[in-house]
């Protein structure tokens, strides 16, 4: 949820305030900039960038996963550790091909197309090519990777 907030530090401060002393705060956030796939496609990257730009315009941050350590540090949590949690999908994981590539990630990117085109962020035909290329990663020889980051910190005071 942090990726959707205008001020994630304020939210973390409030969470810390209500956390018991010695309690653990955990956040898991994605990072759209960590997306890579086969076959690679500049058009798919351009389509993903539309979602990143639109979320930034509305005060969010689609790449917040990489910022969890400094965010936790800024609210003075202790014992902070951050670890990547990669979602790797190929044809050997059909439930993830359907559930993550098609119905989660690509559907989310596809959902910003009309707004991105209307705002002039991308040409409609290029966006459509990017979406088709993302769906292409769900084919039997395709591969899709995305990274979530898990941060853990402790409230000492």
Summarize the structure.
The protein has 157 residues and is an alpha+beta fold. It has helices at 8-18, 42-57, 68-74, 94-110, 113-118, 124-136, and strands at 24-38, 78-90, 143-154.
Overview of the structural elements:
It contains six helices and three strands. α4 runs antiparallel to α6 (124-136). The model has no long low-confidence stretch (mean pLDDT 96). The protein has one domain. The chain is an alpha+beta fold. It has a three-stranded antiparallel β-sheet. Helix content is 45%, strand content 25%. The two termini are 25 Å apart.
**Counting H and I runs of at least 4 residues, what is the number of helices?**
6
Going across the biggest sheet, name each strand in turn. Answer: 1-3-2
Query: For the terminal residues, how far apart are their CA atoms?
Result: 25 Å
Number of strands: 3
The profile of the biggest β sheet is: 3 strands, antiparallel
Radius of gyration: 18 Å
Secondary-structure content class? alpha+beta
The sequence of SSEs as H and E is: HEHHEHHHE
What is the averaged pLDDT score?
96
Net shape: globular
Overall domain count: 1
Uncertain ranges? none
Q: Give the strand content.
A: 25-35%
The amount of helix comes to 40-55%
């Amino acid at each position: 949820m942090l990726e959707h907030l205008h001020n994630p530090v304020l939210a973390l401060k409030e969470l810390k305030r209500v956390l018991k002393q010695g309690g653990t705060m955990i956040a898991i956030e994605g990072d759209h900039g960590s997306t890579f796939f086969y076959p690679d496609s500049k058009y798919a990257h351009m389509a993903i960038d539309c979602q990143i730009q639109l979320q930034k315009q509305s005060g969010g941050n689609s790449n917040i996963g990489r910022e969890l350590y400094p965010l936790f540090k800024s609210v003075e949590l202790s014992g902070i550790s951050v670890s990547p949690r990669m979602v790797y999908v190929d044809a050997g994981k059909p439930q993830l091909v359907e559930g993550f590539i098609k119905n989660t990630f690509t559907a989310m990117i596809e959902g910003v197309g009309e707004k991105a085109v209307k705002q002039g962020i991308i040409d409609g035909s290029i966006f459509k090519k990017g979406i088709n290329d993302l769906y292409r990663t769900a084919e039997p020889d395709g591969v899709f990777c995305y990274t979530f980051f898990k941060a853990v910190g402790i409230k000492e005071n």
